[in-house]
Amino acid sequence: HQIYTRADPAYSGRVTVPVLWDKHEGTIVSNESSEIIRMLNAAFDEWGDASVDLYPHGFHQEIDAINDRIYPAINNGVYRAGFATAQDAYEEAFDALFAALDEVEERLSKSRFLVGNRLTEADIRLFTTLVRFDPVYYGHFKCNLRQVCDYPNLWNYVRDIYQTPGVADTVDMRHIKAHYYGSHVTINPTRIVPKGPDIDFSAPHDRNRFAAG
């Protein structure tokens, strides 16, 4: 909240993360994750490794189509299920979520990543939900038909991305669990944080069976 009011002292709206902050100008550039991922992908090529391109030319349409399928059903779907206040709304989100997970499981039987055999922003966007699914969304948001570890392709895929250099450093499971179980008082009024599950994201995966992108 301090960041938001520093950018706009009169701000009294909802505070969300992530936030891309301009330290020089002292203001928020964006708080929309879909915008931030593209800014970080291309805006700093002059100073970073320009060979890393998560939104490559020639694949924009396919990446956008996958994002349009995954965001409402999976990324946002877990929240729609978790914060539903009516049984019908919960079941609608629940069914759409697992239908989409089944689709992705099938897609990943044919290629290492969502768009062929190269990592793109579509994978990063999906990964952030999948890595939280078993320890948080399965129980906390009642998305309990299956865990990610019950899907052979999805489970290997999550470990593959987690083991990509630099990715594991962005995943603090202790913080993730403390945030979800401690901040959603209407869902978890006791704020008790479960000790489990014990997930080994560093275990070997089988995604190397696909050709390199």
- Our estimate of the beta-strand percent is under 5%
Q: What is the CATH C-level name of the largest domain? A: Mainly Alpha
N- to C-terminal separation? 41 Å
Task: Provide the helix percentage.
Answer: 40-55%
Shape descriptor reads globular
For this structure, the CATH topology of the largest domain is Glutathione S-transferase Yfyf (Class Pi), Chain A, domain 2
Name the poorly predicted regions: none
Estimate the mean pLDDT confidence. Answer: 93
- Strand and helix order: HEEHHHHHHH
Any idea what the CATH architecture of the largest domain is?
A: Up-down Bundle
Number of strand segments: 2
Label the structural class.
Answer: mainly alpha
Count of individual domains:
2
Number of discrete helical segments = 8
Task: Note the main sheet.
Answer: 2 strands, antiparallel
* Cα-atom radius of gyration: 18 Å
Sequence of strands across the biggest β-sheet: 1-2
Give a brief rundown of this model.
The chain has 213 residues and is mainly α.
Could you characterize the architecture of this molecule?
This protein is 47% helix and 3% strand. It has 8 helices and 2 strands; from the N terminus they run αββααααααα. Strands 1-2 form a two-stranded antiparallel sheet. The mean pLDDT is 93. Helix 3 runs antiparallel to helix 5 (87-107) and helix 6 crosses helix 7. It folds into 2 domains: 2-31, no CATH class; 60-209, Glutathione S-transferase Yfyf (Class Pi), Chain A, domain 2 (Up-down Bundle), CATH 1.20.1050.10. It is mainly α and 213 residues long.
